[in-house]
């Protein structure tokens, strides 16, 4: 048998080993990604299925609310070093001009509900993703623990400082089409968001609806 023949066989053997290794790695990666996707979808499903709180405690100590959320998070993460959870403290933190269409749709039901559906769930999903990636696997917890964490986060949002009527559906501001929770009335009687009104009057001295001049 010639030296070239031996070299060819050796090369073919190496190629076969590399191909097998690649296929095994690819299959393993697919399994890991599927496991990751299933886990995140499971957590998301739990959080999105939670209904609004029936009883909303008012005047809660915000630091106590944060402590309760962190204590519950530790039961899920099972770690001494738990990342700080951003707790929503009230309407003053919101910038209505940074909200997207999904937020506006949820806000038609109530403003706190929109904050929970967009910001609250997103924040908890981020925690689940970060912990999964850092630990190479899902958190070892029961479904009830995630439900409890979601309920505490939602409770903190609904009990935050909101303007009067924020928990009820509201008409839309005709300028930005977002729910009209705070308003400024023009002399003609039509009302819009204060920020929207100021921006509108910077370029026009008439009402956006009836076109009455001021």
From TrEMBL:
PROSITE patterns: ZF_RING_2
GO biological process: protein ubiquitination
Listed InterPro entries: Znf_RING, Znf_RING/FYVE/PHD
A GO cellular component entry from the record: cytoplasm
Position of the signal peptide: none
Record's keyword annotation contains Metal-binding: yes
Keywords: Metal-binding, Zinc, Zinc-finger
Record-annotated RING-type domain positions: 173-211
Molecular function GO terms recorded: ubiquitin protein ligase activity; zinc ion binding
UniProt keyword annotation of Chloroplast present: no
Annotated Pfam families: zf-RING_2 (PF13639)
Family annotation (PANTHER family): E3 UBIQUITIN-PROTEIN LIGASE PRAJA, E3 UBIQUITIN-PROTEIN LIGASE RDUF2
Name this protein carries in UniProt: RING-type domain-containing protein
Organism: Araneus ventricosus (Orbweaver spider)
